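dumping this here before i forget
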Amino acid sequence: MIKLKIHTVFLSLLITFTFSACEKIISVDLDHTEQKVVVDAVVSNIPGKSIVVLSKSIDLFSEQEYPNINDATVLIRSSAGEEIVFEEVQDGVYQNRDFVGEIGTEYRLSVEWNEYSIEAKSIMPAPVPIDSVEVVVSQRGFMGNEETSYALKVHFTDAVDQENFYRFDVFRNDSLYDGFVVSNDLFYNGRSTYQFLMNYDMRPLDVIRVQLSAIDKANYNYFLVLSQSGSAFNIAPGNPVSNLTGNAIGYFGAYGQSESTIALPQEE
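structure:
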């Protein structure tokens, strides 16, 4: 998992209106906040995939590295009465490698660090199996760049009679791409469908692993806003609504996950 990069934004928008000889300047402060704890936390039904990453937010224009948070107390509590301790296994990274999430269980995250007390909750949806992953090759490039490009069609069957939300992540040779796709089943409820994934740097013979996570609505909304924050239609990036309580930004999710691996073909 790549640490979630969230900036605390300190921007002033200067809007100039000119009417004949009259000029008016309006200054608008956007998302001006103090430093916060950044939480990137997932519990999974797959062994070894549950992880909590803690760091501090930085200014948008800062060149410093994201400061990790050490010596925090991190607990996961379940609706079944379990209390699981996540230990710091490396700088700012907390795990319990024996933990395996149960489908339908509500999990609560608790983080205590200095004066900060952070909590969140999420119910783990049932994972949706990946039926197949199809490699699509374009000799002219999908973006018209005249270079051989690869894309993926991830086939799966949506669970019927319920609202479902998904996140797709792609790994190349076990390295996670910096990017994701989220989707909901508004237009394919209960049907077999596919998600088209493109704009990834892939090469012949690469081993590609696709991770399909069933997520809750709060996580879907969070990642949807986050994915749009770099849009040309946005004046400035904002902090999406988080399911965390306390002076924190980021997310906590209980994910039902499935994975599929495929090797890219050799060029002919």
